[in-house]
Write a structure and sequence with these properties.
Layout: E1 4-9, H1 15-28, E2 33-38, H2 42-48, H3 54-63, E3 65-68, H4 82-89, E4 94-100, E5 113-119, E6 123-131, E7 137-142, H5 145-161, E8 166-171, H6 179-191, E9 198-203, H7 204-213, E10 220-223, H8 225-238, E11 248-250, E12 255-258, H9 276-288, H10 292-307, H11 321-331, E13 361-371, E14 382-383, E15 386-393, E16 396-399, E17 411-422, H12 424-432, E18 439-449, E19 452-453
Parallel strand pairs: 1-2, 1-3, 3-12, 5-10, 8-9, 8-10
Antiparallel strand pairs: 4-5, 4-11, 6-7, 11-12, 13-17, 13-18, 14-15, 15-16, 15-17, 18-19
Helix pairs in contact: 1-9, 1-11, 5-6, 7-8, 9-10, 10-11
The structure holds 1,4-dihydronicotinamide adenine dinucleotide.
């Protein structure tokens, strides 16, 4: 069998220890892959000026598959997360995180078997943030129809391939009506193409409650990026913690497999790290490559090790990383015909053509966000073709009518409507005529598609 080359990123903190553990176990199982080591991590910031050099991205693009140990992301300092950089550079649009009860690991539940599919590129992870005033910071949450559909399609294809029969979309469309509404609608559209798989949806807050009381009811969960990030750590907790939670980032052309946990600087270099999560990520990778037989043999050895009570400290055991790794190696069954290459579980999702509007969009108004040092801005009732309709502060209407007794900050949204559709130039004229004592720093055009407004109302509007 020809060997597949896989990029290996050893990362920071406990990364090199647990990556070495996987290399040892794969070697013991005679897995037909060759590692190509590549740099990424905190140490690269000093060495190359950024956390992930281009050579590493080139290596993943060339090999199409990588196993990545955790890397440390410095808080502040302007450095982007290495993980987010990899996901974006390689267009890894779906993050797949299985949560399955493991034998020998005692938790509140012994029958969890669910898979989280998290949209991996959008949402607040666009990282589009601006300080709007000394008081107000803003993050643009972008949800796209194509991105949502790609993630949804992956969830259904994965359910199909792995014999699962239900996909649940998780959202907050009761509050974030436009963004999460689009995510949910995209899911429902894609669901119609998979009539043999059940589909339903649940609010994220309810999901969290249900997960910690009755997790066995869920099969495949599809979530937008931020909810998915949080819920998947919660699910890791259901089956034994971060030390046993694997994951894979899947794109059209390449995939990067990594544990859910971070670089655990508190235990780095002490031989205490649990390699199970990155090992399970490695097994996910082997199945992606079609090396199922090897994955099954190693998984069997892992289960036998845990059942024998050989565990690392995070799971209440006394084995160190080295001892745990050796115990798995000792239990790996000899190769037989089951290790032959099977059909790879690679799911190819082709990008869809972009949506075009069903009816032409027209401009009906504009939201001008201003900074005011003197409280409620005093504005003319009419500017050009626009009438002042409403001013809100932190999303709550404070004008017209009685200003509610709430905390007011120095950032106001001034909403203007036009009586009939206007042009962009009219918006620019409005901004040019805006009273100079208020600094406008953010503008949103209010569109309609036919009669349908494409913007939300303020609280109380
Ligand atoms: P963390 O996951 O590194 O650690 C949280 C706790 O879990 C710590 O007490 C740690 O000792 C323990 N833990 C984690 N993995 C373990 C393992 N395999 N075996 C035994 N115990 C384990 O999260 P934290 O401390 O918030 O983040 C540390 C750094 O890791 C940060 O710089 C963060 O940005 C980065 N990070 C990187 C990720 C990645 O590269 N995929 C993912 C998450 C965080």
């Amino acid at each position: 069998m020809s060997k597949q080359t896989v990029t290996l990123i050893k990362g920071d903190g406990i990364g090199p220890e647990i990556a070495h553990s996987v290399q040892t176990i794969f070697a013991a199982a005679n897995v037909p892959i060759t590692w190509e080591e590549a740099d990424a991590g905190l140490y690269c910031i000093e060495k190359y000026g950024n956390g992930i050099p281009q050579e590493t991205l080139d290596s993943i693009i060339r090999n199409k598959v990588a196993l990545k140990a955790p890397t440390t992301t410095p808080i502040g300092g302007g450095h982007k997360s290495i993980n987010v950089t990899i996901r974006k550079a390689l267009d890894l649009f779906a993050n797949v995180r299985p949560s399955k009860s493991l034998p020998g690991i005692k938790t509140r539940f012994d029958n969890v078997d669910l898979i989280i599919v998290r949209e991996n590129l959008e949402d607040t992870y666009g990282g589009i943030e601006h300080q709007q005033s000394p008081e107000v910071a803003q993050c643009l949450r972008l949800i796209t129809r194509s991105g949502s559909r790609n993630a949804a399609r992956y969830a259904f294809e994965m359910a199909n391939l792995s014999g699962r029969n239900r996909v649940t979309c998780v959202h907050k469309a009761n509050i974030q009506k436009i963004t999460d509404g689009l995510f949910l609608r995209s899911f429902q559209e894609v669901a119609t193409e998979y009539p043999h798989i059940q589909h339903d949806d649940i609010l994220i807050d309810n999901l969290c409650m249900q997960l910690v009381t009755k997790p066995e009811q869920f099969d495949v969960l599809l979530l937008p990026n931020l909810f998915g990030d949080i819920a998947s750590d919660l699910c890791a907790g259901l089956v034994g913690g971060l030390g046993v939670a694997p994951g894979g980032n899947i794109g059209k052309d390449s995939a990067v497999f990594e544990a859910v946990h971070g670089s655990a600087p508190d235990i780095a270099g002490k031989g205490l790290a649990n390699p199970t999560a990155i090992l399970l990520s490695g097994l996910q990778m082997l199945r992606y490559l079609g090396l199922n037989g090897y994955a099954n043999r190693i998984e069997q050895a892992l289960q036998e090790t845990l059942e024998a009570g050989i565990k690392t400290g995070d799971l209440g055991g006394s084995a160190n990383t080295h001892e745990f790794t050796n115990a798995i190696c000792e239990r790996i069954a000899p190769e037989d015909e089951s290790t032959a290459l099977e059909t790879p579980t690679k799911i190819i999702i082709e990008h869809e053509p972009l949506t075009v509007e069903q009816q032409p969009w027209s401009i009906h108004g504009v939201d001008v966000f201003v900074r005011s040092k003197t409280g409620l801005p005093v504005l003319p009732e009419t500017i050009g073709d626009f009438k002042l309709a409403m001013i809100s502060n932190r999303g709550t209407k404070i004008y017209p009518g009685v200003t509610p007794d709430i905390l007011l900050v120095d950032h106001f949204r001034c909403r203007f409507y036009a009586e009939k559709p206007v042009e962009h130039d009219d918006v620019i004229a409005l901004l040019n005529a805006f009273p100079k004592e208020y600094i406008w720093n953010h503008v949103e055009i209010l569109h309609k598609e036919g009669d349908q407004p494409l913007f939300s109302k303020a609280q109380g509007e």
